[in-house]
Amino acid sequence: MSWLVIDAGNTAVKWAHSDAEGNRFIGTGVEYRLNLQPLADRLAAAWRLPRPTAAFACSVADDETMRAIERAVDEVAAIDVQWLRAQPHFAGRGPGYGLALINGYRDPLQLGADRWHAMIAACAKYPNESLVVATSGTATTVDCVRGEAGKAALFLGGVIAPGLELMVSSLARGTARLPLADGRIVAHPDNTEDAIATGTTNAQIGLIERVARSFSAELADEGRPPPRLLLSGGRARSLFAALGRHLLAERIVTAVSIEDNLVLRGVALRAHAEAAEAPRPAE
């Protein structure tokens, strides 16, 4: 028995086949939306084996992408996709038993489903710790979670900014003479391509570092330990060295780690919570 968990993003659809207990992924994959072959056909070809018995998904994608996912799941398994949104609070069941996370957004349902499920997975892996969860994709998001032993974790809020590629492409689209650059990151750029690459990368690093420093200072004022920094998304590895070097040396954070498939892991935990709460059929 296998569950299909799906993360539908702005540029790609990621998925994993979870084992029946939800403790591990037995296969993962990604399909990019921009491709000549219809997305539904590509997804159906990838999802035939193992045949899923349930499908759980979160999405920040458009309606067309969500419909393609639904068609693919129906074709391979004749089941409906259970779309998961953000919640006012999460209470873990099964593999996530004991985890509690409160959504501090003014309107909890406005929070992106990907951010919410990434935080669920982060809190499950690092219980009782305060966390900065930074995801670098089409958009860069940096979210703060306050953790404390014996209490529910609290998502305080976060920031959203254009991702690295979006920053670079916006310069090319919005200016007359700046190219779509593919330069290097150097200390003192002496050409336009390197200037754009270095400037946009430093903007990403600076955003994450500023949020981490501010949150760490807030926790220190409350007599709490510094947060842990988690990096996820396509650009996580390119940001890891620069962020770790400064923040660890100054003890702004306790650790810096790269977390793969954070959203998918959160969706799997949520799937088990949803399944545990579902009414059992009468015998």
Estimated structural class: alpha/beta
Alpha carbon gap, first and last residue: 21 Å
- Here the CATH topology of the largest domain equals Nucleotidyltransferase, domain 5
* Number of helical elements: 7
Report the helical percentage.
25-40%
Low-confidence stretches: none
What strand line-up does the widest sheet have?
Answer: 6-7-10-9-8-11-12
Number of strand segments: 12
Computed Rg:
20 Å
What CATH first level of the largest domain would be assigned?
Alpha Beta
CATH architecture of the largest domain: 2-Layer Sandwich
Q: H/E order of the elements?
A: EEEHEHEEEHEEEHHEHEH
Mean pLDDT: 93
Strand content: 15-25%
**Which of globular, elongated, flat, extended, rod-shaped describes the shape?**
globular
CATH superfamily placement of the largest domain: ATPase, nucleotide binding domain
Largest sheet descriptor: 7 strands, mixed
Short description:
Helices cover 38% and strands 25% of the residues.
Describe the structure.
- With 283 residues, the protein is of the alpha/beta class.
- The chain has two domains: 3-83, ATPase, nucleotide binding domain (Nucleotidyltransferase, domain 5, 2-Layer Sandwich); 89-265, ATPase, nucleotide binding domain (Nucleotidyltransferase, domain 5, 2-Layer Sandwich), CATH 3.30.420.40.
- Helices cover 38% and strands 25% of the residues.
- The chain has seven helices and twelve strands.
- The protein has helices spanning 39-47, 63-77, 113-125, 164-174, 192-221, 236-249, 262-277, and strands spanning 3-8, 12-18, 25-32, 54-59, 81-83, 89-91, 100-103, 131-136, 139-146, 153-162, 228-233, 256-258.
- The protein has a seven-stranded mixed sheet, with helices on both faces. Strands 3-2-1-4-5 form a five-stranded mixed sheet, sandwiched between helices.
- A hairpin with a 3-residue loop joins strand 1 (3-8) and strand 2 (12-18).
- Helix 1 (39-47) runs parallel beside helix 2 (63-77), helix 3 (113-125) crosses helix 7 (262-277) and helix 5 packs across helix 6 (236-249).
- The mean pLDDT is 93.
